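Box 3.1 A note on notation
Throughout this textbook, protein chains are presented in two layers. The first layer is the amino acid sequence; the second is a token string describing backbone geometry. Keep the layers aligned when reading.
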Amino acid sequence: MTPTTPRARHRFRRALATAASAAAAFGALSAPSAHAAEPRVPAFRDGFGLTQITDGAVVRGETDFTLTVTSAEVSGPHRIRVFLPSGYAADPGRRWPVTYFLHGGPGTVDDAAAVPALRSDDMITVVPDGGRKGWYADWVMQNTALGAADWETFHLEQVVPFIDANLRTVPDRAHRAVSGLSMGGSGALHYAQARPDLFGHVAALSGGLDFGMAEVRAVVLATELNLPGAWCAISSTAPGTCSDYGPYVDSDAIFGSPYPIFGDRVWKAYDPAAPANLARLAGTGITLYTGDNDVIETHTAKAAHTVKSRLDQLAVPSRLVDYGNGASLDPGCDGGHNYACWAPAFADWVPRLTAAFEAAPSPSAP
């Protein structure tokens, strides 16, 4: 009921105003601030042939987010996960070294969550999608069920400059590393060889490094044909999917014929263990890790020792860590082809890489 006298109306209006002010103040204190709760991440601009899909972004926090991009080089949308140092936003004048992590097959960018050492406060870590069986190569066949598959071009000519353009990186080889495991291990060694101008450091874990080995070629064929039993970087996010390498493609799709009698030129040209390719690593920090305690690691150990021996013959310094049954690496490692060994291997490598980054001379500001 509205008061009838002027005095009463005045008191009533004052009471309403007081109540409204109190309600507003209470609301400001009790209601969560949606704006304050939203993590702030760097804004990225499209470029270098990459176009972002806006609703494909996943923000887990200010230092952990995923972009989704499209490119003419690889059919379909593909994700790029980024880990920033915790001090990235607080120190806007600082530039950071970068490590690229290449997942195994048939893994995803989210496998990086199984490697805590990759979340370093001393560097930016970038995890680009490598496909379930991309093998970090520009495929011979571009008309398979997977369509365009120029993975090497996508990563080296698009993702790397895209990251440098959008984040505060130190854009030189002395402050850029590439690493990977299983399929990504051979990819990392190949990328360091293909672009020594980009990468001054490389780590290959449990990789199919020697394409001269019949066992390694057989694994590539098995992934092309989506056959069970191929080497598998067990996904941290999709247990039980390890044998699914995606649609069937021709056995010559990635590197052409694997048989010398039919011409295996592309296999030989790509081969990370070929002496001519290893010679391109002069001046690069090289680290190899492998166990030898299951049927897969037996082969990765053989390949790693072949690479190490050839590097020694070329007088190219390198470090090989063969942790055998895992006891020398970590109590949780059984020497097998799994993240229980790869996570501590990265924990061993990342501090050494950090020291190498810190020892490298700082380039002039771009």
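The first strand starts at residue 51 and ends at 52. The chain is about 30% helix and 15% strand.
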